[in-house]
Design goal:
mainly beta; UDP N-Acetylglucosamine Acyltransferase, domain 1; ten-stranded mixed sheet
């Protein structure tokens, strides 16, 4: 079923979680196990962070560092863009969380594991990461954005007021403010998708969106459960699309 092969949505992708699956749906089936296999936990604590913390050279510091005007950690006057910064007010539900070099977790963010936050990621104020999430390098989980059981490939961004459930975002995907990737049918039945007039039974009660590389969604757009958008696709603002393959003639 070539339309549902991972590399048709994510050309050239080498991440085993993606490249070795028969269908794009299988990525989500394998996601939690893959996260656990690669996870190297380094969360500073379990609970509420009550003071700014920086992870430098394999240890957490609560003193002895400052921030530059652009928010980069400095130790002894030396800029350390590789340092992890966790602002006071962030909350870690458990210890099964990895924070990559140069990542930032802002005040008010809530993170649950198992979760991997890759290098250079931003977890912004009010973000709600519910677990079973893998964010590759340079991703953004924005203000008031909720993410659960989802994969963000490198450079994917959900910057403002988004919901991302049981979904895969390709490289450099950008979700406009207020985008919702719905994952559950009103009637609770398994999600079906329409591929060129052929109805495919996914066998999954919860399935959000599969967005290929560089897909963009407009503000306040909604994808119905089981929406697939090929690489480079566009979803207009305020649109409700899917389920099925969207944007293909």
């Amino acid at each position: 079923m070539v339309e549902l092969e991972p590399l048709s949505f994510f050309p050239g992708e080498t991440l085993p979680l993606v490249a070795e699956q028969e269908t794009v749906f299988a990525i989500l089936d394998a996601l939690t196990g893959y996260i656990r296999s690669v996870l190297r936990p380094n969360a500073p604590l379990v609970g509420l962070v009550d003071r700014p913390l920086a992870f430098v050279d394999g240890r957490w510091l609560d003193t002895g560092f400052t921030l530059s005007e652009n928010g980069v950690v400095e130790v002894g006057g030396v800029s350390r863009p590789d340092a992890v910064l966790v602002q006071a007010g962030a909350f870690f539900r458990d210890g099964s969380i990895e924070l990559g070099q140069g990542s930032v977790v802002e005040s008010g963010a809530y993170l649950a594991g198992p979760t991997v936050v890759g290098p250079g990621c931003q977890v912004r104020q009010g973000a709600y990461v519910r677990g079973a999430c893998l964010f590759q390098a340079d991703c953004v989980i924005g203000h008031a954005t909720e993410v659960k059981h989802s994969l963000f490939l490198e450079g994917a961004k959900a910057g403002h007021f988004a919901y991302v459930g049981d979904s895969v975002l390709g490289r450099e995907v950008n979700l406009g403010a207020g985008t919702k990737l719905a994952n559950l049918r009103f009637d609770g039945r398994d999600v079906k998708v329409d591929i060129g007039g052929r109805v495919v039974e996914t066998g999954r009660r919860k399935l959000g969106a599969i967005l290929g590389n560089r897909v963009q969604t407009g503000c306040n757009s909604v994808t119905n459960p089981g929406t697939l958008v090929p690489s480079g696709g566009r979803v207009p603002g305020c649109a409700a699309v899917g389920p099925g393959l969207y944007g293909v003639d």
